[in-house]
Amino acid sequence: MLLAGGLGGGAVVPATGTSATSGAGDPTVAPTPTPSGTRPPGPVPPIIDPELSLPGNPSDGLRDWGQQVAERTGIPMVAVLAYGYAELVVAHTTPECNLSWTTLAAIGRVESNHGHSGDSSLLPDGRAIPPIYGDPLDGEGGRMLIPDTDGGELDGDEVYDRAVGPMQFIPETWQLEAVDADGDGVADVHNIHDAALAAANYLCRGDRDLTVPADWWAAIHSYNNVSVYADAVFNAANEYGQLSRP
Fold it and tell me: Which InterPro entries is this protein grouped with (predicted)?
């Protein structure tokens, strides 16, 4: 879960999870998940002005690449397009970050199985239906305690915050990171295009270079500071990197 103070939400992993040594090893010395898979082709697309409603989704230009990656990895194509486009955008806005779509895909899998948590699934436009909400962050069962910050506007809970959407943002963080990635004029936490780009921007905060192992692990732990969670993301990123290669 993205933590507070410019920190955000994610699916809760029990605080009693295994240590980092159970999977990827000590975060300060573990190898970075270098396999990045097939990189999205073509030039970096322009940043979308959220004040404008542009025709079409800019990620549509990645469909040929996305179809191949979806077939190789089993990730829904709409999610692949969201992750790939987010990589291209931050490659333009924050080139020193070196974020790969495989890291976003790994987080998407661990958080919501790419928008397919419970009875939810992704529509062709990227919206998760029905909407995905995490458990109330009430301090019980190993969950963090985060009293309501938005009057229930985003998460429907006026007592505690909940993580929301396919990338599981808590309301406070979504207020900071909300972005319109698909050009429909709306920053929608339930839409994987918008949520993936918001997650990419979040991971690239703090002058991180995600090809540096310590920076990669720090980014993942900032999303959810539980070792078993970070291990799961590492393993998924590595798996997707290898599967997506021709």
Answer: Lysozyme-like_dom_sf, MltB-like, SLT_2
